[in-house]
Specification:
The structure is a homodimer. Chain A has 16 helices and 30 strands. In chain A, the strands form seven sheets. In chain A, strands 8-15-14-13-16-18-17 form a seven-stranded mixed beta sheet, with helices on both faces. A six-stranded mixed beta sheet of chain A has the order 29-28-19-20-21-30. In chain A, helix 3 packs across helix 14, helix 6 packs across helix 7 and helix 10 packs across helix 14. The termini of chain A are far apart. At the A-B interface, helix 4, strand 10 and helix 5 of A face helix 4, strand 10 and helix 5 of B.
Chain lengths: 630, 630
Amino acid sequence: VQEFTVNFKGLSKTIKAPKGSDLLAAAIRAGLILNTACGGEGLCGKCRVIVKKGNIRDERSKFINDRDRKKGFVLACQTLIEGDLEVEVPKESLEVHEKIKHESEEFTKGIILKREDGFKFSPFVRKFYVELPPPTLDDNVSDLERIGRELKGSLDKVMLSAKLANVKHLSEVIRESDFKITVVVGYRDGELEMLTVEPGDTTKANYGFAFDIGTTTVVGQLIDLNTKNILGTRIAFNRQSVYGSDVITRIIYGSEPKGLDELNEAVISNISEIIEDLVSANKVNLSDVYVISYAGNMTMMHLLLKIDPTNIRKAPYVPTTTVFPIMHSSGLGIEVSPKGISSFLPGVSTYIGGDIVGGVLACGLYENDEISLLADIGTNGEIVLGNKEWMIGAAASAGPAFEGSGLSFGMKAVRGAIEKVKIDENLNIELGTIGPDKPKGICGSGYIDLLCQMLKRGIITKDGKMNRGIKSGRVRKGAANYEFVVAFKNESSIGKDIIINEDDIENLKRSKGAIYSAIIALLNKVEKKLGDVKKIYIAGGFGNYLNIENAIFIGLLPDADRDVYEFVGNSSLAGARMALLSHEAFEKTNEIYKNITYVDLGSEPNYMDEYIAALFFPHTDLGRFPSVRL
Amino acid sequence: VQEFTVNFKGLSKTIKAPKGSDLLAAAIRAGLILNTACGGEGLCGKCRVIVKKGNIRDERSKFINDRDRKKGFVLACQTLIEGDLEVEVPKESLEVHEKIKHESEEFTKGIILKREDGFKFSPFVRKFYVELPPPTLDDNVSDLERIGRELKGSLDKVMLSAKLANVKHLSEVIRESDFKITVVVGYRDGELEMLTVEPGDTTKANYGFAFDIGTTTVVGQLIDLNTKNILGTRIAFNRQSVYGSDVITRIIYGSEPKGLDELNEAVISNISEIIEDLVSANKVNLSDVYVISYAGNMTMMHLLLKIDPTNIRKAPYVPTTTVFPIMHSSGLGIEVSPKGISSFLPGVSTYIGGDIVGGVLACGLYENDEISLLADIGTNGEIVLGNKEWMIGAAASAGPAFEGSGLSFGMKAVRGAIEKVKIDENLNIELGTIGPDKPKGICGSGYIDLLCQMLKRGIITKDGKMNRGIKSGRVRKGAANYEFVVAFKNESSIGKDIIINEDDIENLKRSKGAIYSAIIALLNKVEKKLGDVKKIYIAGGFGNYLNIENAIFIGLLPDADRDVYEFVGNSSLAGARMALLSHEAFEKTNEIYKNITYVDLGSEPNYMDEYIAALFFPHTDLGRFPSVRL
């Protein structure tokens, strides 16, 4: 294939790209991380760049007006390279990590701290300051044994192992620091391991990261391992989205060796930047970060660890492994302390990964006497039902709509997102937006409110079509199909109307139908009724801003007693953090994953009927939603 | 410092060397391994090279006759570089690995096989052929779990861990081989670990190496891990000798970072070449070698693993560690299977290393009801005394004389070595030489015989001086001092007389005195008498060719009942092999090393007196040697 040179002006980055490849991929290979909220599908309009010179072929986009178009503005993801190019990247197109919404973070923390008390505080990596008695002729045990002897009092069990690389210069470090040292001890496969020795007393500086690696978003938290305090949280769209918005596309791409490398590099760059961002914001030294605890779905874990994912997507859907050894962070290409370690929550199967096991740990479902249910609403909707005696789990192909992806104005629940919507009888709209700014888009909880309100006011029908009879400037025929204006140009911060159209509604309807029918199918499987479920934990990006009443109103969640519902936020992240703070909690996940039986919904006789019946708001069978009055 | 170019002609190797550095070091840096039986001290005359051009400064050596000298012959170790040089290296000066004497190898094997029966055959690495049931929708556990499930029947305990690198391409390998695979399982810290998976049935090809890393010699054995058969044994002088013949010199050298690298590279090259030599001689694929088991003294282990050895030689003589984790062989720079692992026998202290712990394992001293003693006569003489309830150990600075080093004609017990000597009343000599050739030199057991016979025939006196009154062409004043001709030029294969001189005898006397007095000091320490010792195991390079009677006659060994003595050969190597063949045996060494109490002879009140009293043949106190009649 012919190759062209792409010169990203002002950033002094030049790369070669094959003819016909897209400009977004070229930018990524050049190390430029453009905003790609929609995953490179031309839907979000955020990867705007200016082609200064050279031949391109591009799709005309509604996000570029004529004036900008004349200046050379294009969407990088919709532009194919047809010659040597000079490209300018406006600052606003470069991705910035967004601080996750403060309240939501605190909320998650509250839930988890309650649960964390159930486990002994014993972080994956601990530091112990010791003043060793200097050796004498009568006491000349080896340096390593001297340290082990001194630590016995501090540890529950003797330090049993030490990797060779960690002892090579031990003798020098100990003597140069006059036998006053801080021993960094890690937990690995049931044993404690000396990771390294630092001169003097450095116990005060001990930090770790918890990460949730989602298909759509990557979330990281910096934790002080002395105080358990969360020092900060960052969320970013998973850059693998450029190679496909769902796991299937990514697995296909990752089945080629180079593809696997690229997907791996994409998520590693996400993680690295979140780490850099949080350590610099908190004035923490990278070298004081000794541990990272990861949770994620099975595909994400395979891609993160560069394990061939090919067979995950081929029937009978076999992952290479569902458990992952503790390893050095540096082995992943992550720059923290070179002696730092990483751990990964184990999963059940291809469709129930460590993110869900983490969620079960975080909400405590596995130890409840009575039956409870966890619904994690992310790119897929994973459901676990059970109690301390049994657990079954399933995954619904819900798509990433509730994570704000794949919708005209979808976004994460971050600053500028519409998260609450009220529409009065006169179709006046009251919006609740995260932060002080005017809105930029709509997050998952905002969409649920919006659908509910549109249904209540008759703007859309039970099957999700726009009511053509409504007389309102907000309802109109748009570029694609009928649309409803949520915020007019002057009310938004992006210089254009924020709308929802029938495609968006269809998308949301399928998502909610998939989740609801999965819940019902699992109940059917064990011959239980909704009333038998004493707790329904709702996890996902919603934070505590999902309006349960509204979610039931649209038929996303079943019409159970309202006090059965409890929000647990990003429970995957919470599980990763619990494991980080207590290796007892980590060990518990090894029990949990073995006790969850995976149910393949495709093989359940009634699942498809349930799904089709759920493709209405709230449902074809209104008898199931007695509290809903349209 | 000024640098010169040294061009090794015909070998197309050219390097830069600083002015005044020696030619042997330059050759080694150029990758040429010259014979250096004496460790680069000008004593063996084996590193002959021809300087064709350029300025040198050299010591005139008795090993170079005038004719050769005119041709440019010099000893590389005694030649300093004073200008750009052209050097030719005769083929006979390049080191060749020598096969260890067949009988001695067999002997060791006999001793050990008797003991090996005490441990379950469970080599460090095992191979299991499995035909996995292909996954189905009803049975779609992960690939790793599928393997673990299938192996459960074959293993005592479930395979618990697998390193990430070993699972990355698992899914592909399994499917390409149609689910018929050989699983290579290694033992690590009490757990079994999947090292890799090979397509098809490869169980027949499973090999390991046992190594004894001595200060003077490196010995390796290739073992078939299916049959326990020893396929071959090779012995080589430790190339670190170039940097110093004893551990102290090497530690000083190794305390500089570059020095540590060089010492490490030297021994790694020894090991690598022995491995290459044995696999090619036995038509074994390197990739089928999955495990290496090492035993060696504490300094050798530090240098092998590139652990800073500085504090081993400084009071209070503290090693960095006396136990070493199991690691990947590739991490040491050894080329066998990239997934192969290496294990190291643990030691007690700076002076009682894994070689001695291996010896205690091999001879079984640790489980005897009655008191027994192990004397390992190598570069040092290490002694362990005890029974199943207690053990004490000490090291005597015996020097490498009995390993054939540091003596005018000393050599290893290999082909061409005089190993037996008889002298009749007329001073006629009958020599027993290893192999069919004429003798080249004298090995340890040969020297013991020789000393004994010289004493008996009055050729030397009790204090080791040559009897000037003897009328014989064999006794003469030599270059250094008085010497005795063991084999005349025409009886030797090296074109010159093989002699022993008074320096050699002094050297041997100190060695034997150090060992004897260490044995007595340990007995005194626990207030036992020689008669309390029911077994004395003799280990070292002697094989079964040490004449006990003669060793007692010269005062090397105490005058105990002869049936108390048992030869165990290279018991360090035997211990390494036992660990290789049974990880139960390896685990046992972790008990043994903890149960041996180290005794510092220097702090023992009577040791120095004992040593001085032992500097006679056999001893100043003849009452201690009632069976010896001079």
